[in-house]
Design a protein that fits this description.
alpha/beta, 14 strands, about 350 residues, 12 helices, six-stranded parallel beta sheet
């Protein structure tokens, strides 16, 4: 029997894009939709049992509605989507859920959207203009990314800081994530301070960037900056997050930015650069904002393909934000937002 909805994309619960198919599938199953999943990559760790059951189904027919939750095209591969054998069809609606972290998308993405899809949904308003400027002609809808924050929201809110204040970043080691500048800013603000530490844990990424981060930590000669590289299961990830006093995202570009929202769901203050998808978080006035207006040319995942610009921040301003949180913000934060007020405020973005 032909399913009503087909979802396509990778499955990797320790990764942002890898969770999207699973979390959308769970929602659709709760609403009793007939669905199947056509995944090109599957890591079964932390995948719910009913999703694993779906993956075992032999029915590979495309549904009446196809939703692609994946990167549209990768450099060096064929233009045609992985699971779509033809261009758009009159008996089918195809929707791409898509995002990129810069001011333009590759021409290959534009061509694929216009040929193979009926509509595209993007998670933040800045991307609507980005896709239009890039040449996308099909309808574009802004639909914020569905993120499962239930375990974060059920965790007791953080009420006091650790004796040694923990600043953290848990992004992949990528130039866009800007951990190198984070190390420099923390060293400038709180290098070798006894009651503060910076914990960076990367779940993977670019080996060259990873090496640059480690070398910068060595050059800084700061004993209170730590770098680890582990892909954590969900329970360990949440437990690690609970140890944090302030989450820092100095990213140069985000499609949606999940981790600052996870921090807010736990009642943890966050420092966030004001650009791309993170601008929506900054508008909530629930985070410490760092101005981010230094334009840097963006390339498509190491290829020569230009993708407009990304946005960096000033080292001194990032250091000042870290110092401000260390000296003042936790006290102000807990005095102004306690108990139910804190919980309701932080959970606005769920």
């Amino acid at each position: 029997k032909r399913p009503y909805i087909t979802l396509t994309g990778p499955i990797e619960m320790a990764d942002g894009i890898g969770k999207q198919v699973v979390e959308l599938a769970e929602t659709l199953l709760d609403e009793n939709f007939s669905i199947n999943i056509l995944a090109h990559h599957v890591n079964k760790v932390d995948v719910p049992s009913r999703i694993l059951s779906l993956l075992r189904l032999k029915n590979k027919q495309l549904g009446k509605i196809v939703i692609a939750e994946e990167s549209l095209w990768d450099h060096g591969t064929e233009l045609a989507p992985r699971k779509l054998p033809t261009t758009t069809q009159p008996d089918q609606i195809r929707i791409a859920y898509s995002m990129l972290e810069s001011t333009l998308i590759p021409p290959e993405w534009v061509m694929q959207l216009n040929l193979y899809y009926d509509a595209v949904a993007v998670p933040d308003s800045f991307l609507v203009e980005t896709y239009i400027k890039s040449g996308v002609q099909i309808p574009i809808f802004e639909i914020p990314l569905g993120v499962d924050l239930q375990k974060f929201l059920k965790t007791p809110l953080k009420k006091e800081r650790n004796p040694v204040m923990v600043f953290a970043n848990f992004s992949s080691a990528l130039d866009r994530k800007n951990q190198l500048l984070l190390v420099q800013a923390f060293a400038k603000a709180l290098g070798n301070v006894e009651d503060a530490v910076l914990q960076i844990n990367s779940r993977g990424g670019d080996e060259e960037i990873r090496d640059e981060i480690i070398n910068e930590i060595i050059r800084s000669n700061c004993s209170n900056i730590r770098f680890t590289e582990f892909k954590l299961r969900k329970d360990a990830y949440i437990k690690l997050f609970q140890s944090v006093d302030c989450y820092v995202s100095l990213s140069k570009g985000e499609g949606f930015s999940i981790q600052p929202r996870e921090a807010m769901a736990l009642g943890i203050p966050a420092i966030v650069t004001d650009n791309t998808g993170q601008t929506t978080i900054c508008k909530s006035n629930l985070v410490k904002t760092v101005k981010s207006a230094i334009l840097e040319p963006a390339r498509y995942f190491g290829s020569p393909i230009p993708c407009g610009y990304r946005f960096n921040c000033d080292l001194d301003e990032a250091a000042a934000a870290i110092k401000d949180v260390y000296e003042n913000l936790w006290t102000v934060f807990t005095k102004c937002c306690t108990g139910k007020n804190l919980g309701s405020s932080l959970r606005l973005l769920k």
